[in-house]
Amino acid sequence: MKRNSYISKVIMCVIIFLLIFPLGVVLLWSFVKIWPWPNLVPRDFGIRAFEYILNPNNKSIRILCFSVCLSSVVTVITLLISIPAAKALGVYNFKGKDFFKILVLAPIIVPTIAVAMGIHVAFIKLGLANTVLGVVLVHLIPCLPYGIRILTNVFEIIGESMEMQARVLGANSIQTFIRITLPLIAPGLLSAGSLVFIVSFSQYFLTFLIGGGRIITFSMLMFPYIQSGDRMMACSYSIVFILSTLVILLIIEKIVRSYYKGENYFYM
Amino acid sequence: GNNSNKEEYNVLDKEWKDILEDAKGTTVNFYGWGGSQKTNEWLDDFVAKRLKEEYDITFNRVPMNIDDILNKLLGEKQVDVKKGNIDIVWINGENFYTAKNNDLLLGSFTEKLPNFNKYIDKDSPEVKYDFGFAVDGYEAPYGKAQFVMIYDKVRLDKAPKSHEEILEMVKNNPGKFTYPAPPDFTGSAFVRNIIYDIVGYEKFISMEADKERIQKEVAPAMEFLKEIRPYLWKEGKTYPATIAQLDNMFADNEVLMTMSYNPNHVASKIVTGEFPETSSVTILNRGTIGNTHFLTIPYNAPNKAAALVVIDFILSIEAQSSKYDPENWGDLPVIDNGKLNEAEKKIFENIKLGKGTLPQSVLLEHRVPEMPANIIPIIEEIWQENIPVEGE
Amino acid sequence: MCKIELKNISKVFENKRVLNDINFTVNEGEMVSLLGPSGCGKTTTLKIIAGLISPDCGDILFNEKSIVNIPVEKRGAVIVFQDYLLFPHMTVEENIGFGLKMAKIKRAKRIARIKEMIELVKLDGHERKYPNELSGGQKQRVAIARALAIEPKVLLLDEPFSNLDTRLRESMRNFVCDIQRKLKITTLLVTHDKEEALMTSDKVAVMLDGEIKQFGSPWEIYEKPVSTTVADFFGEKNYLTGEIKEGIFYCGIGKFRTSFNKYSKVIAMIRPEEIEITDSEENCGLWVKILSKQYAGDKIYYTLIADNIQLKCITNSKNIFEVNQKVWLKVDFDNIVFFESE
Amino acid sequence: MCKIELKNISKVFENKRVLNDINFTVNEGEMVSLLGPSGCGKTTTLKIIAGLISPDCGDILFNEKSIVNIPVEKRGAVIVFQDYLLFPHMTVEENIGFGLKMAKIKRAKRIARIKEMIELVKLDGHERKYPNELSGGQKQRVAIARALAIEPKVLLLDEPFSNLDTRLRESMRNFVCDIQRKLKITTLLVTHDKEEALMTSDKVAVMLDGEIKQFGSPWEIYEKPVSTTVADFFGEKNYLTGEIKEGIFYCGIGKFRTSFNKYSKVIAMIRPEEIEITDSEENCGLWVKILSKQYAGDKIYYTLIADNIQLKCITNSKNIFEVNQKVWLKVDFDNIVFFESE
Amino acid sequence: MYKKLKPYIMLAPVMIIILGIFTMGLVLGFFQSLGYFPVIGLNDFTLKYYKEVLLDKSFIDSFKFSIYISLISSVLSVIIGVLLAYSIFQSKHKKGIEEIIYKLPIIVPHSIAALLVYNMLTQSGVLARVLFSLGFISEQAQFPSLIFDKNGIGIIVTYIWKETPFIAMVVYTVLSNINEKLAEAALNLGANKRQVFWRIILPLIMPSILSSFIIIFSFSFGSFEVPYLLGPTNPKTLPVKAYIEYTNPDLTHRPYTMVINMILTFYSFLLVWLYSKTFKLISKFNG
Ligand SMILES: Nc1ncnc2c1ncn2[C@@H]1O[C@H](COP(=O)(O)OP(=O)(O)OP(=O)(O)O)[C@@H](O)[C@H]1O
Ligand SMILES: Nc1ncnc2c1ncn2[C@@H]1O[C@H](COP(=O)(O)OP(=O)(O)OP(=O)(O)O)[C@@H](O)[C@H]1O
Ligand SMILES: NCCCCNCCCN
Ligand SMILES: [Mg+2]
Ligand SMILES: [Mg+2]
């Protein structure tokens, strides 16, 4: 028993190291001026990129805040409509269930550029192009599959019996949802939520197209630098991108946990 | 804004002072590639600030790749959107051709711009033609680029100045040279430069887009590329996909040379510290391709008046000289030197040349025109068919 | 205060008819026990009443009104599930207070009520524990407390005491019955404990294979079972097949006088506790041998053999006999139950 | 065939001592019942023996060898869990066959064994069902079958029959006992059913508050409880505090002759079934009134009152008395248990 | 009646968005693949683009390469991801920092991931430098070609790096929702830890593994960024081919883009469908 958990600890540490080390290199690169072969350590450091990002003229920070809000809204909406769908797919048996299960994956399966123009035309017709609402809606597309699939798995495991118990005790469907379903799926909600946030936060093609430049997100600022190969810029933007996402996710996690923990103390 | 639909329609009929009046207090949306810190900074810090001071125009830069811009316009065109978002687009070459051909642009507007009339040599092929296509006033020149190759004096003592010297260099330094695979913009330009260097440029300038003919003409160049292939990086079995990667490989000492369509590129890379101080540019003796990049206005620009004002401002001495300063951007000016007075000439002369770059005069001496844009994809196709080898 | 009527309820699961035309009525404030072997459909019946499963056909009336279309939470019928179903993310307190909160009971009142319930189910000191920190019996008590806390109109108990020891079971049972009587909660109790069923209920329903086989007062069910299967349900019985002719019952172990004469071919059911054994010969005895013996504290279970027929016998543990001992057996055939045999 | 010894086992959960210095031995092939109120630590004890929880201190020996460092799966001690813990993704068959598969039993043999077990626990026709399609009792039977299928050395049963009806319970119990005896499986049975404990076990351990209070044969435990708490465990008792002087027991309801004379200040424990009531005055009777009565099929529970002292009495249901009737009470004070009182 | 409709009602909002926004896009894309694109003057329906693309000899190579990349990377991601999730779950005595940091790569967009793997694995990358300074290689050229190589190592590594934490996160979420007493029960019945994992844990988390596999497989099968940035010049993956056609300023190339995309879409659906079917078969008969 002891030996086994030792082995799994080692496996865990090795994998985590391999996952994290390259990120450390990214962090390093965001301060690197020049790093010629075969040096193990960069020759010269600088903070040009961070200076640029913090320069208010190019509005990076303002756009970052806007992006965070936008993606948060997208995340909330995605989760709200994913929960019933996931519950239907996870708990109930009905005709065409398998079909729906594959269909919700469509946005991942169908390459975005194949549908982009059609979506754009449709959004223009609906008057949604170049609006925040339009961007929010179009972000739902790549986000929904993640939300639904993860929550479906969770619902498959927890089933419906707890909700039934709550109903029997006099909770109506809304109360049941808030008091029982939500807390029970909270861990899954956190996973799904963070993933959805990330997917929305890193969307740029659809944002370009539907936002039309009216709506500028942080990834739209960042991607040109990645493409242009300015590693210091790209890495700095990435670091800001990663850190802000991380902060958001940690805050959400804290809030969720404290909400349900807090219940223990002032639940009456 | 304070310009109704009707006025927009007639913006090209208006007096310049009315246009200035209309533009006042409005916002203009400038769409273009946003992958260069210097370029962005110049627009955000200099242009935006000056526009506000001078014309009370709010300058909004939107970083967007040209293909996304075109797709957006194309989508709007399908539904016939009268009022879009884009006021100014940074464009050139094939993309301009596409936009113009599909009626995505406002029309001939350059004659309206006082600075265009005052400073630009309208008869220069670099202004009249964009990759061989007639501009017809649909776009105004913004800056000039010219193909150069970049090397590090410390690592490579003799920079190649012709295709023969390139062959010699790769033979001496196997695995230390490569170029981005077309259709990368710069990689494609390298291939064309080799073609020019081997078979001359003249016959291409007015050539039809006929694949067989082109194939025959470029055959010697393809032979050359095959000849150097075994001495290239990874024995020419694969090529970097983007110029950005080649730049990084050069910065990391993985290869001896990189290349650029911007002769001042090396200077800014030295300033940022990415390239060593000893980096320098070289050009081919038989000339390297130069081109001009332009600014245009989409057919459905919401604020055409301000777009005109902004483009006019960018054509001013102040803007062009500021842009030329390697401290700011280092982009070659489009202004005709002959149309400047002494004081104005002085302004340009006083600008310190960037590290590692060549003086404008040397560049202009070795400048050859671009091929027509519709030939380029054919050449890229030919390259694709001839050069890359499938794995063993 | 709610009268429950089940009318022709049927339910099929995967081609298997689990409930077949169930009909019974529980009057206001009554406590009815539902007995039946494992898998006969008891839980399903409760779930249908609560609204967790909808019946394939039939109707359920609460106070003469059909409720099949009323949502679960509006029915006011609370189940205590066989497998507890405590909310894992809530403490004992919170679990118990859940229904009260749903009913929007004021905080102060709620706290008082939770405290009261916790005392009644003897879980003081466990208030802040989460379900996974409780023992089986403790979980069951929380489930009971949670249901009773909201004083439901209808209480559906699915083997609520199965994991409790005898004493606790008794006290919980008394406590539930008290509340039930005081508040006139119409109650349906599923239990496997026949004593529990007989002692606590106003009526008993015996269910077999998805059908109600007998529905009546405890006394009726125990003393006048309609069939041997129902009878068997209250402990193993001795059955003697035989004939009654002119007041005499002829069977494998002998002939006995009886006053019963409805049928001639009969099965006599003799409860093991109706058989007396002694070592002193008294009137009209029968000579049997003890085959085996099991000590059960206040009782002893014997297996007797008489003329190749095995008989079960339960006596109190005052007279202890040994295996293989020969004893005299006494049965009062006047008071036993006869079923017609075909 | 395995002797189990528990030596000074203790366990603390969150500052609460759940097991306190537990010591007992189960001999090879013996069946020992573990009784105790809910939450006293029975499940914890079983889990410690199986290796699912490690004790804070103490040692466990299987056949004189310490096994605290042997992993769970090597111990060969199988638990039937109180909450079944069936594998939700496996059918009934697969659940039952799981242990066999783990033991690398050949397919053909496995199938035969699974079939046999399914028949024994009477689940024919449910082979292909998943746990969530089973009733409570059916689940419990699968859990039992799953454990027995692998014929373990040590069998730990945690209230294995709590959700079964009396008859099934009895037949399952007999079946488990048969296997247990045949294969000499050392068995520890947690049960709340005192009869079950007394009837099936070689020894009984009574656990209270994490301590073994008494360990002995069923007869010892029932007839010679070491304390009133142990005694109470087998049903409610009547306790009379009094004094014994010169062969006479003086107490609240009168004075009685007795042969017991160890202590003078005593508590007499009278089991409700040791009290006889009649309506005809016989020798040495006492006059009492019936306060309440509960019908329980073969028995009737009476509460009697004599001189303001309530007494519980259980009689068979032959003589039925009415509430408020006055009856004569008879107790054999020679054979009752006296505890010393302080 | 309501009971029967309920799941459909619950799915409705999602379906309205997915179908509503998607159908329009898909139909237009499909029309364009058939050569109908009026705005640029293509007005006739034709199958010629399909024919051209399907007959192109490099198409098959690209197709194989795409499948190879996404299959290898998805399978490896799943294996490593499950291993990671399970080992974190196992070694979890109290909540550690590892529970957060392993998720970091999920936050990183794919293009940054490509950049990052590039930084690590090129001949002048961190790994090569480390090997050089340890004396394992004496010059850059000795370092194997892992980026832009025909085996797609760079692409695969990037996907693995990116998707492993994704799998681990999903699996870990599900793992922590599984009643851990089931594992106890299995141990108790004589299963060792390995068997507990294979027989109890894995089957229970299998549905989640399946759906995350499908997600990452279709994602990597259909996205161009990583192979575009790190792939060899030849063969290109299908999405890269489609992307290059898409960015061709000559809009008459657009139908080729759409043909490739339609083929991609078709095959993805086919593979996902086949996969879930076989999975069902396997799980039915393994008893
Ligand atoms: N994980 C835990 N954390 C804290 N306390 C626990 C935990 N598990 C059990 N307990 C406590 O330990 C005590 C003994 O539990 P155990 O499950 O052994 O009781 P039991 O004798 O089996 O009771 P029952 O008959 O009700 O099943 C109980 O008071 C219970 O609340
Ligand atoms: N979801 C289901 N699918 C298929 N069969 C089911 C389902 N639920 C229950 N059953 C079957 O219906 C029958 C009745 O189940 P029910 O739970 O009502 O029994 P019960 O009387 O409560 O038994 P127990 O005393 O064992 O709990 C059982 O045979 C069971 O196997
Ligand atoms: N393009 C960025 C998308 C990031 C989300 N990836 C989640 C993992 C599955 N592909
Ligand atoms: Mg049941
Ligand atoms: Mg227990």
Automatic annotation (TrEMBL), chain A:
GO terms for biological process: transmembrane transport. Keywords: Cell inner membrane, Cell membrane, Membrane, Transmembrane, Transmembrane helix, Transport. The keyword Transcription regulation does not apply. It is found in: Cell inner membrane; Cell membrane. GO terms for cellular component: plasma membrane. Pfam families: BPD_transp_1. Belongs to the binding-protein-dependent transport system permease family. Signal peptide: none annotated. This is Putative spermidine/putrescine transport system permease protein. The lineage of its organism: Bacteria, Bacillati, Bacillota, Clostridia, Peptostreptococcales. Gene3D superfamilies: MetI-like (1.10.3720.10). The chain crosses the membrane at residues 12-32, 61-81, 102-126, 132-155, 176-198, 204-226, 233-252. It is a multi-pass membrane protein. Residues 64-252 form the ABC transmembrane type-1 domain.
Automatic annotation (TrEMBL), chains C, D:
The keyword Protein transport does not apply. Pfam families: ABC_tran (PF00005), TOBE_2 (PF08402). InterPro entries: AAA+_ATPase, ABC_SmlMolc_Importer, ABC_transporter-like_ATP-bd, ABC_transporter-like_CS, Mo/tungstate-bd_C_term_dom, NA-bd_OB-fold, P-loop_NTPase, Transp-assoc_OB_typ2. GO terms for cellular component: ATP-binding cassette (ABC) transporter complex. Residues 4-234 form the ABC transporter domain. SUPFAM superfamilies: MOP-like (SSF50331), P-loop containing nucleoside triphosphate hydrolases (SSF52540). The keyword ATP-binding applies. Its EC number is 7.6.2.9. Keywords: ATP-binding, Nucleotide-binding, Transport. GO terms for molecular function: ABC-type quaternary ammonium compound transporting activity; ATP binding; ATP hydrolysis activity. It comes from the Bacteria. This is ABC-type quaternary amine transporter. It comes from Paramaledivibacter caminithermalis (strain DSM 15212 / CIP 107654 / DViRD3).
TrEMBL record, chain E:
It is found in: Cell membrane; Membrane. Residues 63-275 form the ABC transmembrane type-1 domain. It is a multi-pass membrane protein. Its main location: membrane. The chain crosses the membrane at residues 7-31, 65-89, 101-121, 153-175, 196-221, 256-275. Gene3D superfamilies: MetI-like. GO terms for biological process: transmembrane transport. It comes from the Bacteria. Keywords: Membrane, Transmembrane, Transmembrane helix, Transport. CDD domains: TM_PBP2 (cd06261). One of its GO terms (cellular component) is plasma membrane. SUPFAM superfamilies: MetI-like. Belongs to the binding-protein-dependent transport system permease family. This is Putative spermidine/putrescine transport system permease protein. It comes from Paramaledivibacter caminithermalis (strain DSM 15212 / CIP 107654 / DViRD3) (Clostridium caminithermale).
